[in-house]
Amino acid sequence: MAHMGDFLTEMLIAYGVKCVFGMPGGQTSALYEGLATRQSRIRHVLVRDERNAVYAADAFARMTGRPGVCDVTVGPGCTKLTDGFVEALNASIPLIAIVGDLPRDWLPLKAKGVASQGFDQLGFLKSIAKDAWIVPTASAFPEMVRLAFRAATAPRPGPVALIIPHDVFDADWDEDRRPVVADDRYACAPAHRSRPLPEPIERAVEQIARAKRPMIVAGGGVHGSGAYDELEALAQKADALVATSLTGKGAFCETSNRSVGVLNPMGSRAALALAPAADLIVWCGSKASQNTANNWTLPTAEQATITIDDDPQEHGRTFRPTVALFGDVRSTLRELTPRLTQNSNAEWLERAETQRRAHEAALDEDSRSDALPLHPARVLREIAARLAPDDIVVSDASFSSGWIGQYLPARKAARRFLYARGQGSLGYAVPGSLGAALSAPGARIVTVSGDGGFSFYIGELATQAQLGLPVVNVVFNNGVLGWLAMWEQVFYNNTRLSVDLESNRARPSYAAAATGLGLKGLQIESPGDIATALDEAFAFDGPSVVEVRTDPNATPIHSLRRRLQDPNPDRKRPGTVYQLRDWKRSPSL
């Protein structure tokens, strides 16, 4: 007879789920039987580590807007959800984790792992998820699945977990008593699109009309809402400049004369110079987080602000906006922009052009350098020339984010750059490539990592090879945890401890490791290697690793570069000077 693993599979199919990422366990075997008998309608992807199942599902969700689904077994599978769940929670990504559990009447034996792998999974998951539940009975199963999809996709989207005891999973499924009924309103995020009230819309119109130097800061909320056309229309009507956060990169075409690039300490010099000079900043689907707000020096006390967000808690977290527009980004812009009169801020756009040229000149200097070891920019310039508009770039954390943010332009408004900035953990790029590739058949995926981050997930290269995915993995190998090495050097008296990733005894070859795992492994050590290696990787029908020996002294963080070049740097330890910025009340124009 059919069981609840069959039922869950049918429910996933009814909600439009195409792919599940995970690793089998004894307690989840019913799900695997359900998936195995329905492979023409839903696919399962085996990962080498459950941590990477969450990241793969996260990338799939970012690309499609549909909840990413992963599965893990009880105990050690569950605990490996941590990094991915916190990332998805902070970045508002809809995820559903199917978590196996011990039989219900074994509850007294979970303590101290008396029953193998047992512990309080619900308490653990509640601390890192938007929500989590135990499925109490087979009869409650249908409503619990509907609850999971509602919670994952309704504003504000996020990760949820369904914990399914072994005896509930294996229970018989009577389709007549428990039919498959999905609520298709919650098959995609955002499930609901709220709109602001008329009064704040009118106040926002007044502020934009008075602005002479308006700037829009577009965050990940623009991607989540799919508000690309609406953002372009607002920028044109307001005659505004547009910067993005790292997560928001691609929300606005960076070849536009309105674009000033990524606003971040390791982003565009033009954005960093112009943002403090704006008289109005429209925070559009952006949390004004630490890096996007340049360590909360933005907004300045003199700047008027408008915030657009469907989470009421974001309207005033670090400053009180002049106008708070509580609503979905796309719906809000559709209400706002038609009410605007056409602005004309020619001097502001000319000023931006001057700053943009200065930024591009600085980039050009590094990207044309033939010095050895290679500067990452030298290779990124060649990668940019080979990227098609629909190719997808997946970034790892740390310096990789900055290199991509500065040197790989977004040539169209679409989600083609994936950043794990919700938590900023190393180890996202390669597992993220799995979800990205399976969500967009025909697209080339390019991952960019340092050797530190790449070491987190080498096993998933075997997954890429097994699936034959079109992924070019670029590894900037400088033999060191670069940001931490520089941090120790600048602020902690030239300390150098536990940051070196190679020694006289061992110099890892990631290209060789890739070859052993079934990928094409290529190495770049000099300028003459670049074109040949990249051409071969981009032409290859399958995954490849391009290992680049790079300069350990190169950094995309502008302030860190200045400190490294200063013969007498200020060595005050950061922890002694951090302070909570004053909460500001933005003025009106």
Describe the protein's topology.
Elements: H1 4-14, E1 19-22, H2 29-36, E2 43-46, H3 50-64, E3 68-72, H4 76-79, H5 82-91, E4 95-101, H6 121-126, E5 131-134, H7 141-153, E6 159-165, H8 166-169, H9 198-210, E7 214-218, H10 220-225, H11 228-238, E8 241-244, E9 259-262, H12 269-274, E10 280-284, E11 304-309, E12 319-320, E13 323-326, H13 329-336, H14 346-367, H15 376-386, E14 392-395, H16 399-407, E15 417-418, H17 429-439, E16 445-450, H18 451-454, H19 459-467, E17 471-477, H20 482-491, H21 510-516, E18 520-524, H22 527-539, E19 544-549, H23 558-565, H24 574-577, E20 584-585
Helix pairs in contact: 1-2, 3-5, 3-17, 11-13, 15-22, 17-19
What can you tell me about this protein's structure?
By secondary structure, the chain is of the alpha/beta class. It has three domains: 4-186, Thiamin diphosphate (ThDP)-binding fold, Pyr/PP domains (Rossmann fold); 198-354, TPP-binding domain (Rossmann fold, 3-Layer(aba) Sandwich), CATH 3.40.50; 368-556, 3-Layer(aba) Sandwich (Rossmann fold), CATH 3.40.50.970. 38% of the residues lie in helices and 16% in strands. It contains 24 helices and 20 strands. The N and C termini lie far apart (70 Å). Residues 4-121 form the Thiamine pyrophosphate enzyme N-terminal TPP-binding domain. Residues 556-589 are annotated as: Disordered. This is Acetolactate synthase-1/2/3 large subunit. Its cofactor is thiamine diphosphate.
